[in-house]
Structures are given as C-alpha cells and as structure tokens.
Amino acid sequence: MSYDYPPGPSDQEAQGQADPGLAPTMTTRGGSSDPLFGLLLALAVSLGLVPSLPDGADLRYVLAWGALAFMGVLAWLLGNAERIGQEKPEDVAWGVGFGLLFGLPFLVFFGDTFGAAARLLFPEMSVGTRLALLVFVMPLGETLFFRGLLQRTMPLWTVAGLAGVWSVTLFLPIMWSEVLRAPAVAVFVVVALLAMQALYGYVQERNGLASAWLSQIVVNLLLFFLPRLA
C-alpha cells in the first residue's frame, strides 16, 4: 500500500533556509529617500540662518555647506557613496581643463558682473575667508553630496537641477537687493549657477569625482575670487 505525503520544501527553498545569504532581505528606511532628506536638512539650515545676513554670511555658508559635507561623509563611511580612487593624471587634467574652458570666457566677457556678484555674495569678508570658502568648504560639501552621493542613484540632469535649486536658495537671499534693483543681472547669475552645476555633473560622469572637484575649484577661483580682487 502506498501513501501520498504532503510535498516538502524544494532543494532551493531548503538551501535558502539553511543559508542566510540566500534569505530574502528586508528593505529598511535608508535608501533613495535619505539623500533627499539630507538636502532638505541643509536647505533648512540655509534658510533658517537668513536673518543673520549679511553680517553672518560666512557662518551661514560654513554651516550650510558643512551640512552637505556631513551627509556626504556619513554616506561615504556607512553607505555606498562614491569614493575617490587613484585617479589617472589625464582625468585630473580634464577636470582642470573643463574648469578653465568654462570659466575663462565668463571672466573675459562678464568679469565685472561676476565681480559685483562676488561682492554681494561674500560681503565684508577677508581674502583668506573667501579663499577658504571657495576652495575648501563649498567644493567639499557640494562634490561629496551631489556628485558623490546623489549622482550614484539619480540621472545627471536631475542632480544638476537639485544642485541648482540649492545654489539659488543659498545665494539669492544675500543678493536680494540686487534682484529687486537689477533683475536681469540676478537672472544671469542664476543661469550661470545652473550651468556650473550641470558642468560639474558632466565632468563627474566623464572623468570621475576628483575631476569634478577640481573643476569646481577652478571655476570658483576664476569667477568669484579673482574678479573680487579687482
């Protein structure tokens, strides 16, 4: 006499139960929404310190860009943000080259405009403070967060748009008087900021994170530091 036994687990199911590596993974809160939460946090810091302008502009910049850098470093240490590996010399050269290719024409033809914008964006700051912000603080925060973290999971143009919104939100309050007095100049600066963020995203995809970092440093020096010295 034969008996029909209920079907048991298949070999693959049994192996999945025995092998924790094959067990289904649980999705936790920490995925694609967290970087945007970090951006909202940095925006909150930036907007919350608007009443301190113009005297507290340097502190506002440090804290706002510092919030971006903190989120980028946290993702670099605990998450999957892009690391800066051993870069090829030609990629580094391309980063500097793209910065010069973008910045020099603006410096030659619109140097006075960027000089006026720099005086509004960095009021009553010493040369050393402006240099530190433009070479270290700003590129560190924006490169690690936008190019190193967001651009791993989002398209280039989406990240460039978010970075552009960040730049406008950060800089527009401090130059609001100029926006009311000469809106065409303000629109020009906003368009230039959006183009800069698109450039850095493109350089990151083409030549890597360090190249985008250097490209932003070069553009900052050409358009916001040198014209301010004149």
Would you write up a description of this structure?
This protein has 230 residues and is an all-alpha fold. It has one domain. It contains 9 helices and no strands. α2 runs antiparallel to α3, α4 packs parallel to α9 (209-229) and α5 runs antiparallel to α9. The longest helix is centred in the middle third of the chain and has 33 residues, at 89-121.
Short summary:
This protein has 230 residues and is mainly alpha-helical.
Task: Please tag this protein with its features.
230 residues, mainly alpha
**Annotation, overall tally of beta strands:** 0
Summed up, the helix count is 9
Order of helices and strands: HHHHHHHHH
The biggest beta sheet is recorded as: none
The overall number of domains is 1
Radius of gyration: 23 Å
Kindly name the structural category. mainly alpha
Average pLDDT number: 85
Tell me the fraction of residues in β-strands, as a range. under 5%
List the helices and strands and how they pair.
Elements: H1 11-18, H2 33-48, H3 57-78, H4 89-121, H5 127-147, H6 156-171, H7 176-181, H8 183-207, H9 209-229
